[in-house]
Specification:
The protein has 420 residues and is an alpha+beta fold. The chain has helices spanning 7-10, 42-48, 138-141, 172-179, 185-195, 214-220, 222-228, 250-262, 267-272, 277-293, 297-308, 316-325, 329-338, 342-349, 352-360, 362-379, 382-400, 403-419; strands at residues 20-22, 25-39, 56-57, 61-63, 66-73, 78-85, 95-104, 116-119, 123-124, 133-137, 152-165, 169-171, 201-205, 208-212, 241-245. It folds into three domains: 25-165, Apoptosis, Tumor Necrosis Factor Receptor Associated Protein 2, Chain A, CATH 2.60.210; 183-310, Potassium Channel Kv1.1, Chain A (2-Layer Sandwich); 330-420, no CATH class. It is globular, with a radius of gyration of 29 Å. Belongs to the Tdpoz family.
Length: 420
């Protein structure tokens, strides 16, 4: 538990009036156990439980003095697992901490070191809620070493630690500061989203329906505010109204909803998109487009930052086009700065997205030329400037210019170099 600074409370209480009390927390007992969850008929299960809120529950099992249930949500790009204690089994007078780890087991004949392992944070038993789901990517789970005969096994290891009050004198101020826990507002809001409790608006995206709360969306997005609240009482959307969302996929809308409720990217985004730039680029693009569409500036800037880290020769044209389309001046400037070297620009010209970028946004090509001219002028290399643009003109000529225009440009640059 995080302790708040004592000084933040000391101004409210006169130090000479402080009494001493006995308080300190220490783990005195730890019990650990594991439960193998074997899922049979995985393909049939996916077909039967379509929808992000449909799950299959395990039998009740006991570990560490508590009874537990595991819910498996098989739909979507990630398999979600919710580990929850049976509420009637919790004694609120005691403090119990729990640590849970998931291990996706390999099939027979494969080394155990190939297991997929996921650790979780330590939390209090009483704080377990619907939002505490743990995700395993579908691609990972469906690897042959994990999925065999249409079944897989995940071992859940649960460690329960009991705390007690140890003897030791500290002030009431320090005691109070220990009672102040970090804010969990985002977790409570995510719980609302997950449970759909009190939801009053629904969105249909592709074949998926999402339930949400108008007041949350309106507070977080000016576009949602105008759409859901309107400018007068006559324009407000009635309860249980369903909105069709066009030109957006369900994964992107789900990730955007999660951000609106939690102010952070969802856990499944971070788990799934760790790797090559090609893997990261597409989801970051889609989220940026969604953020720009609904006026979610912070999400847009986060996506810009992720795209900035992905700038390279292969991705530059796509990222620069996106920056131009959605008014991202800093991302655009970073792209142009990247290609100020003529050799790099020459390589970018050969990529798949360059033709589309120049056709759709010819002004960008002009800005690229200005940047290279400026860089060459700073280095005093006018001949290099002419050679660079002759090379680039030849590269793009089959797609953008007639051959006689290119020849004319070549003759001009050749004469220009002779005259220098």
């Amino acid at each position: 538990m995080v302790m708040a600074p004592t000084s933040s409370l000391s101004r409210a209480v006169r130090p000479e009036n402080l009494e001493s009390t006995i308080i300190a927390r220490k783990v005195v007992e730890s019990r650990k156990g594991s439960y193998p969850l074997k899922v049979l008929g995985y393909s049939s299960l996916r077909k039967a439980l379509i929808g992000v809120n449909n799950c299959l529950s395990s039998q009740v099992f006991g570990i560490g003095g508590f009874n537990w249930i595991i819910d498996c949500y098989p739909d979507g790009d990630h398999i979600a697992f919710l580990v929850r204690p049976v509420r009637s089994n919790i004694n609120v007078k005691d403090v119990f901490l729990v640590k849970i780890s998931l291990t996706l087991l390999v099939q027979d004949g494969i080394k155990a070191s190939s297991n997929y392992h996921l650790e979780t944070d330590i939390v209090e038993v009483a704080e377990f809620n619907e939002f505490r789901r743990y995700y395993v990517g579908r691609k990972t789970l469906e690897e042959p070493k994990f999925l065999k005969n249409d079944s897989f096994t995940i071992r859940f290891t649960i460690e329960v630690m009991k705390e007690y009050v140890n003897l030791g004198e500290i002030s009431k101020v320090q005691y109070c500061s220990q009672l102040v826990k970090p804010s969990n507002l985002h977790q409570q809001l995510i719980s609302l989203l997950e449970t759909e409790e009190g939801a009053d608006v629904s969105f249909q995206v592709d074949d998926t329906t999402f339930q949400a709360h108008k007041f949350v969306l309106a507070a977080r997005s000016p576009i949602f505010k105008a759409q859901l609240c309107g400018t007068s009482t006559n324009n407000t959307i009635e309860e249980d109204y369903e909105i069709q969302v066009e030109d957006m996929d369900a994964w992107t809308f789900n990730a955007m909803l999660h951000f609106l409720y939690s102010d952070s990217l969802p856990e499944f985004y971070e788990l799934e998109h760790k790797g090559a730039a090609s893997t990261l680029l597409n989801p970051a693009q889609r989220l940026l487009v969604a953020a720009d569409r609904y006026g979610i500036d912070r999400l847009k800037h986060i996506c810009e930052l992720k795209l900035y880290d992905l700038i390279d020769v292969d991705n530059l044209a796509r990222i620069l086009t996106l920056a131009e389309q959605h008014n991202c001046p800093q991302l655009k400037a970073a792209c142009i700065e990247f290609v100020k070297d003529p050799e790099i620009l020459g390589a970018v010209v050969l990529t798949e997205g360059f033709e589309h970028m120049v056709k759709s946004y010819p002004a960008v090509l002009k800005q690229l030329r200005q940047k290279i001219n400026q860089a060459n002028s700073d280095s005093g290399s006018l001949q290099e400037k002419g050679k660079s643009w002759l090379f680039i003109a030849r590269l793009i000529s089959p797609h953008f210019l007639f051959s006689f225009v290119i020849d004319a440009i070549g003759r001009f640059l050749k004469a220009f170099r002779k005259g220098i």
